[in-house]
Design a protein that fits this description.
This protein is an alpha+beta fold. The protein has a domain at 36-71. 15% of the residues lie in helices and 42% in strands. The chain has helices spanning 3-28, 36-58, 61-66, 191-198, and strands at residues 79-84, 90-95, 101-106, 111-115, 122-128, 131-137, 145-146, 154-159, 165-170, 173-178, 185-188, 206-212, 218-225, 228-234, 241-243, 252-259, 265-272, 274-275, 278-279, 285-292, 311-317, 320-327, 330-336, 345-350, 356-360, 366-370, 374-378, 382-387, 395-406. It has a seven-stranded antiparallel beta sheet with strand order 3-2-1-29-28-27-26, with no helix packed on it. A four-stranded antiparallel beta sheet has the order 4-5-6-7, with no helix packed on it. It has a four-stranded antiparallel beta sheet with strand order 8-9-10-11, with no helix packed on it.
Length: 414
């Protein structure tokens, strides 16, 4: 046999051995086969997950749970959103960077605008047919949606500081709901207060105003009648609320509420019949209520006083106060003193010395410190102005401004 034939035979034998070895290896390697029942279960799970995701997106749950809104569209940042009254009220924005105004929505009777803390949604009150309802929409005016359906009055929609809920006053009660309007329930007044009112104590309760805390809960004003308004403190988001007991004979008509961003406290401003010397027959005195929420908030009962609940009444006499807010180093208030020698201005009340000194030479219904050392000055249904750090005179943002809301400085990721 020739050398060439021997080499061919060796090659054939080698290929047979390699093929046989591959077959052995293939036989030794375990084969994984998915059980048909498990395949079916995984398929069902995937279908359920996809359907659930679609439902969560359509109902706005992703934004509520995780701050994710796939169809959110444009977001508003570094702007003031406000409603300017006219033949047709309009929602407009003022860009703090460029100084430009832009109309977002213009139609009949719209009021009480609010921007969410993420800058993704606007809320406002407008008419749906002949009934006022609460609406939400994107900051560019698109995807407008009504989130209330009940009859009666609506007012003051606000977003919770955590961005998960929207609240509003409907028929004299404060409701909280998911961002799409579902799961709404009455937070204030409490069921106990409603029951007491129905049993003849002081008549019907009507919520006049409220403010969310930046820490937990809210403070509300409940009206029992003319010049008979009380404060209601809610210590958590589950409706655990109670009325702050007032001394016998004290009457109040509340002007403004504020929640501090620096400490867990509120300030309520009211006209009152209490002067620094005692009760009077007229409602021409001004009064502050400093409400400091303790870390462990106890339930109120009939025997508790305002001091027991961390509430300090501060009679101001004839010194007119329109708005006040508590800061870490003291209290800032818009004050028109009864002493003609003292100017009407925004005053700083030092927390240690108790001395008041003019901070800004302006008196207004409401002021607000915002980012980059800027201050908003607002007189209800009048001018909304902004005072920048190095300016001596404020700049007008809008005229006949019914309400306003400040968008976040930059996008907030929640």
């Amino acid at each position: 046999m020739s050398d060439l034939e021997n080499k061919d035979l060796q090659n054939v034998d080698t290929e047979k051995v390699e093929t046989k070895n591959k077959e052995v290896i293939s036989e030794d390697k375990p084969k994984f086969k998915l059980n048909p029942e498990i395949k079916g279960m995984i398929g069902i799970f995937v279908v359920i997950f996809v359907l659930g995701l679609i439902m969560a997106i359509s109902m706005g749950k992703l934004e509520q749970w995780f701050g994710v809104d796939i169809f959110a569209g444009a977001k508003v940042n570094n702007k003031i959103i406000y409603i300017e009254e006219g033949d047709k009220n309009k929602i407009a924005s003022y860009d703090l960077s460029s100084g430009k105004n832009e109309t977002i929505l213009e139609e009949g009777d719209i009021k009480d605008v609010a921007v969410s803390y993420t800058g993704k949604k606007l809320a406002f009150v407008a008419y749906e047919g002949e009934t006022p309802q609460v609406f939400i929409m994107n900051p560019d005016g698109k995807k407008r949606k009504v989130i209330t359906t009940i009859e009666g009055s609506k007012a003051k929609p606000k977003f919770s500081p955590d961005g998960k809920y929207i609240s509003y006053i409907a028929n004299g009660r404060v409701f909280r709901a998911d961002l799409n309007g579902s799961n709404s329930f009455s937070m204030l007044p409490t069921r106990q207060e409603q029951s007491q009112a129905l049993n003849g104590r002081d008549g019907k309760l009507v919520m006049k105003d409220y403010v969310w805390s930046y820490f937990e809960g809210m403070l509300g004003v409940v009206s029992r009648g003319e010049d008979d308004e009380r404060l209601v403190l809610m210590s958590d988001n589950n409706g655990d609320a109670h009325e702050i007991p007032f001394p016998e004979g004290l009457k109040c008509s509340f002007i403004s509420l504020s929640a501090s961003t620096e400490v867990n406290a509120y300030i309520a401003v009211a006209k009152s019949n209490l002067s620094p010397k005692g009760m009077t027959d007229t409602m021409d005195n001004y009064m502050l209520f400093l409400v400091q929420v303790p870390e462990e908030h106890n339930h109120a009962n009939e025997s508790m006083s305002m001091q027991d609940m961390g509430v300090a009444p501060i009679p101001m006499g004839k010194d007119r106060v329109s708005y006040a807010i508590l800061m870490s180093n003291g209290m800032v208030m818009s004050l028109k003193p009864s002493d003609p020698k003292m100017p009407a201005a925004i005053y700083m009340l030092d927390g240690e010395s108790g001395q008041a000194s003019p901070l800004l030479p302006f008196f207004c219904d409401k002021f607000e410190f915002i980012y980059n050392n800027q201050i908003l000055l607002h007189n209800i249904s009048d001018k909304l102005q902004i005072l920048r750090k190095d300016d001596t005179e404020p700049k007008v943002i809008g005229n006949k401004v019914q309400s306003y809301s400040v968008a976040p400085q930059k996008e907030v990721k929640k």
